[in-house]
Amino acid sequence: MNVLMLTVALATHATPIRLEDARARSRENVQALTAVLEASSAEQDVRIARSSLLPQVRFSGSGNLTYIGPQRSYNIVPVEGGGFQQLAVDTPEVAFPNLSLGVSVSQLLYDRAVWARLEQSGAQLEAQRGEALEQQDTSELEGINRFYALFRSQAAIQVLEANVRRSEQQLERARALFQAGRVGKAEELSAQVNLGNDRIAVVSRQSQLATDQARLTTWLAMPGAEVVEAVDPGVLTQTPAPAPSLEQALQEARTRRPLLVALRKRLRAAELQRSIATAGYLPRFSLDAAYQRQGQDPEIFFGQPSRQNVVRGGVSISWDIFNGFTTQAQARRAEYQTRAAELNMQQSEREMEGTVRQSHVALEAQIVSAELAEANRKAAADALVLAEERFNAGVSSTLEVRDAQLKLTQAELTLLENRINVEIARFTLMRAMGTLAPGEAK
């Protein structure tokens, strides 16, 4: 099987994957969905915290039958002349029902801890949502990297295949010149060896292609054995757009990076924990009401609703006058946790600024490298044309043509690598700025 047949066989029935598809699927892969589920769980925590502020209504009902068998009891009674004696009393068996029905309602009037806990759960929910967006951005960037890794392998194989075709043409020229008596047999053999080495390079690159395909499919939650093909995003034929200013990138990151939003909400939740702790210094008020109906006669219980009724209601107050300094200790602990959250947020802001600057410098450097690589490719292409003309004229050897071929191939691979690195660096900067998915980041 020659190189062309192997390439066609590997590409047969390949599922095309566009860059937009890879980005969208990455935001819905296992890691991203797990983060979304955690945010949904935090949303239920808000509902649980809110439930304490709503009326608590409870219904209870029971019905049972009590059976007492024949009994003998003794009563002590006085007798004439003084003294006492035991008098036996026999009672027959008896059975009687016991019916009960009740409804109770309680309503919290004031408890500072409950209100603070509700606000805290809301802050934790927003923090969890921010972390979910952060994970989605992380998953999307990884999907972009894996997409471009596959596209790089595909494009590199095309470059190597083009080099194989150039080697085939060089072998034909060397063979024709040898048959014409203008060059020796060594030139033809050298060209044949070069062609074999170039074909080996193409075959060797196919294993890397399969690795990149598997890494992309598994990340996108697709069958790992499925053969995919990265659709050309068109970046190789486009001039790289300039990088945004560093000031603009930093400003965007401060306002739109989901991680910073989540950390600010975590800090707010820590501050509210102190409010929850200090609520122990304040009283708690609640309103209670209950209705109960109980009796042993079913006819009265079910037939006379005006009887056997008990209704009660009242306002209760609860105040921890002294609890062994527990409230004070909890408040102090909450202050320490708030300070720790504040320090963590400040450090994350500094790290974010460093990441943005690093990504910004990397993007600018990659753009310059891509421009230099394009100039090198043009020079290498001109050098190959000159070497082929000299070989056809019989004034150079296959070695000179081979050297020009290798330099052109290396220049094309370098240009490919740098041009793809420009796009990866651009998406990395967008990830650091929090603008990878503008609609969702808002």
From TrEMBL:
Keywords, in A-Z order: Cell outer membrane, Coiled coil, Membrane, Transmembrane, Transmembrane beta strand, Transport
The family this protein is said to belong to: Belongs to the outer membrane factor (OMF) (TC 1.B.17) family.
InterPro entries for the chain: OMP_efflux, TolC-like
Originating organism: Archangium violaceum Cb vi76
A GO term from the CC aspect: cell outer membrane
SUPFAM superfamilies: Outer membrane efflux proteins (OEP) (SSF56954)
An example Gene Ontology molecular-function term: porin activity
Annotated compartments: Cell outer membrane
A Pfam family hit: OEP
Domain of life the protein comes from: Bacteria
Name by which UniProt lists this protein: Transporter
Coiled coil: 331-390
